[in-house]
Design goal:
The complex is a heterodimer of chains A (about 350) and B (about 350). With about 350 residues, chain A is of the alpha/beta class. Chain A has 11 helices and 8 strands. Chain A has helices at about 1-20, 45-50, 70-75, 80-85, 120-130, 150-160, 180-185, 210-225, 255-260, 265-275, 280-300, and strands spanning about 60-65, 110, 140-145, 165-170, 175, 180, 200-205, 230-235. Chain A has a 6-stranded parallel beta sheet with strand order 2-1-3-4-8-7, with helices on both faces. In chain A, strands 5-6 form a two-stranded antiparallel sheet. The radius of gyration of chain A is 21 Å and the shape is globular. Chain B has about 350 residues and is α/β, with parallel strands linked by helices. Chain B contains 13 helices and 14 strands. Chain B has a 7-stranded mixed beta sheet, with helices on both faces. In chain B, helix 8 (about 165-175) links the parallel strand 6 (about 160) and strand 7. The longest helix of chain B has 15 residues, at about 20-35. Classes of the chains: A alpha/beta (about 350), B alpha/beta (about 350). At the A-B interface, loops of A face strand 14, helix 12 and helix 13 of B. Bound molecules: thiamine diphosphate (TPP).
Amino acid sequence: MYEAMVTARQYEERLQEEYLEGKQPAFDISAGPIPGELHLAAGHEASGAGVCQHLRDDDTVTAPHRPHHIAVAKGVDLKRMTAEIFGRETGLSKGKGGHMHLFDPDVNFACSGIIAEGCPPAVGAGLAAKKRNTDSVAVAFLGEGAIDQGAFLESLNLAAVQNLPVVFVVEDNDWAISMPKDRVTDVKNGARRADGFDMPGTRVDADDAVAVYEAAREAIGRARDRNGPSLLEVQVHRRMGHFMGDPEAYRSDEDKAAAERRDSIDRLESDLRAHDVDDETIDELRSSARERVEEAIEWAKEQPEPEPAAAHEDVFSNPPSGVTDSEPNVAEPEAGGDD
Amino acid sequence: MAQQERDPAEERQTDRSLTMSRAMVEAIAHEMREDDEVFYMGEDVADYGGIFDSTEGLLEEFGRDRIMDVPISETAYIGAAVGAAQAGMRPIAELMFVDFFGVGMDQIYNQMAKNTYMSGGSVSVPMVLTAAVGGTYNDAAQHSQALYGTFAHLPGMKVVVPSTAYDAKGLMHNAIRDDDPVVYLFHKRLMGIGWLPAPDGPKTPVPEDDYTIPFGSADVKREGTDVTVVTLGLHVHRALEAADDLADDGIDAEVIDLRTLVPLDTETVRDSVAKTGRLVVVDEDYRSFGVTGEIVARVAEDGLADLEAVERVAVPDVPLPYARPMENEVIPDAEDITDAVRAARGDE
Ligand SMILES: Cc1ncc(C[n+]2csc(CCOP(=O)(O)OP(=O)(O)O)c2C)c(N)n1
């Protein structure tokens, strides 16, 4: 668990460096080796690691727009994920998805950048497991800003009435871009929303990865034993802006400082030390994580960019007849006007 | 987000230039001062000032009751705008990225758009739905669509797509005063935000006083005799760039900015094609069943004899890819437009 958390943190620190390249001194979102938005998850690691520790490859995870820590913990191919973020041909999605849309069918991991819209597909994965009579489970991750969305509430209900093996994990980092939690919900303890669907709801406060691990064991075990869905809310902290380039003018310095102080990684590290894990072991875990990260980044950067024409492929798995993968050549007059 | 310092002396000058976002905000502020029934709600519109600066500075003047941050619940707050509008208020609801329309779409096309009709005209829905559109910054398929055609296809909503600060202000005044629901789609690349640099064109002189631009009045942004290029939004600027390049080769392109899709100014387009004989339609939306097909059809319906050649330039029916080489491939640029113009002329 510690390894997954440290890998995720180091990974994102490196992504941040790479992202800022070409965007200095003037921040231009479309410049540099990693364009588009980038949402980093520093401060969220405990939930990804604590939950995914209990999952197998055949269990499904759907992640939201802030997916890296969950992907790392679920065992998504780090190299191909990195290549995807760099928009390379050998990326998980051949450069079509980018950082918010990571798909790794080998470990049943999928993403959506639309708030709460990963919940219904997780319910569907649970439904498939039930129909096929397997003991795999599905976990949908979402932020506390997403719990007002219909897709989440409807998914809780459907999973409950169908008694499906689904766990909903809410990562409460107190912020939804610039909106503090108290401006978007009157229910401070999000786990209480489970009551409305007659399913168990648990909240883990204080960025405690061990407590997340315990609570997730209970919820996932319940799902695996076909005892139905549950809701788990985890207090995490957003140590950075909502996305890279967010100046966070809406956020007080004290709030930022508080988020920095409550670091689940530091906390787990002291727990480990208290359990007599020595410095050497911790250093080893850290340096092996760093090596893996570095290797993935170096590999990704060496990968080729996709050919422009590849943009026309993959719209369908089974293209209907008459649909071609290539663009009609509009500049060819002898074709007698295009199409 | 940097709060821009406004210099009142500078603002009084009639030839002051504004970014498109400032021009939009100026119109909204004016309407809010004039009419207490106007209010604005959306995600991150208060303290943040809108992710694309669409409400920058409004919270300070109007407070949280009128510049409302709402939970991430598009169905609820867009629907609430419909309800408030039916109660006689004039809400503006912001959908941060147009791509999120699916979440609140029932409220948009079954309630907002249809209640006037279904009530036999006894109910009106005087609201504005604003949304950011467009790609060109590699944010992939869920954050880069234009979707102009989707909204224009569904009856009951007026659809506005400004391309300059001057137009953005005038069209916003209309949109808020209009008794019907208006979908106001602004392209991120035109807003003039620091992190998403705009081309030169959209920052224009903007009069300080309020003024309106009638819906359904396309603007001839460049006159020409050889070919008519019809477009909207960001692609007005790409078409103008293409027209400049073509002029170097002695080809004189007329560039028409539609400004509104509903109502659509078919007459200006037809008149232009009657003059040039050649039509090129450029759109950042998907090619099939969209703006390009509609414009060609309208010209053909009444002016088939004038049409010597037609070309369409649009996104070739693929979701917007993330990686730069592929995004560049599918979003039309100035060169795609010059190629299409040459093809329409039958140039080798
Ligand atoms: C349906 C929809 N509405 C709005 C957005 C824009 N948006 C992206 S992230 C975000 C805030 C999400 O907050 P939260 O769920 O708490 O997750 P966090 O970013 O804090 O991890 C918003 C409003 C979106 N992507 N999808």
